[in-house]
Galactokinase (Nakamurella flava), 384 residues
Amino acid sequence: MSPADIDVRALFRASFDREPDGVFSAPGRVNLIGEHTDYSGGLVLPFAIDARAVIAAAGTDDGLVSMVSAQRPGAVVTVPLAGLAPGAVDGWAAYVAGSVWAAREAGVAVSGLALALDSTVPSGAGLSSSAALECAVVLAVAGLAGQSLEPLEVARIAQRAENAFVGVPCGPMDQTASAASEAGSVLLFDTRAGTIDHIPFDPGAAGLSVLVVDTRVSHSLADGEYGRRRASCERAVDILGVEQLRDLRLDDLAGTLAALPDDELRRRVRHVVTENARVVQVVELLRASRIDEIGDLLTASHVSLRDDYDVSCAELDVAVEVALAAGALGARMTGGGFGGSIIALVPTASAAGVGDAVIAAFAERGWTAPVVRPVSPAAGARRD
């Protein structure tokens, strides 16, 4: 039993004066490469990390969803099951209530729930704290209802919660990575085909480490910027007469861009097409056991996200630049952007120096100190 399990069980007992029926958890994720392509039918390459959202849960007969969070101490939040609908709940409770709502919409029947949450996935860091919570709740609802859901079904229900209930028009990558990842691999997810493949990923065997640098610049994807990027892609699809941007070929990119009416659309499309190509190249290198050669592709992804997709920020850019100067083989922002984290592939012997250099660079600029943590591929959602 992990410390997170012990804490959340204690929180459950203190809040509901009984033992939980079960404990369920799901991880955050970091995306190695393939950013802002999942809602265009693209290819993505995330992996789960060992930071997890953990839910202690019990079924009830009171027709209520009662929930409490260790991250937001206070009274238990209670919502009637019959009143669950998009817009009915806000704040952190919307992610929990929305996941229950989406599970019920998918036919997972419960008469009431008591839920206690604890999480080690940092909020606002671009590590999918919301997807981890959603997947853990969906798994808990199904488990208490005596139903077994496949990982991709857990992900689909969790994504619906975020899209339709919370109101963030995210693609399926985050929830799929949280639900379906396996330890020791990255998850090649073809979002158009809906298929996954586990690609072995062991940086340590090559003398490498993956660092996540949380800039501690918080971001909200519900504030409209994410939706505007998605709307741009949908507009380009309409103009180009294709089903999804995934249909566009790198070989035809120049002609495709010439058919678009303005520079912003051209840059958005160029990012998506070239990012899909970079994912393919990274997968080919990983399958050939050439992990030390993927660094330039990671850095090229960041440049594209910064210049073509406009989702970076000063803190992310400085973290990438300093990490590269300190010896990283490649670095890029990860997640939705507008803050959050970068990842850097670094020689393990240089990892401490890279982290120290970024911390020093932030201090020189008077910015809040970033948090540097090594990550490695972890298991997906599970009943603990």
Observations:
- Residues 202-375 form a domain with the Alpha-Beta Plaits fold (CATH 3.30.70.890).
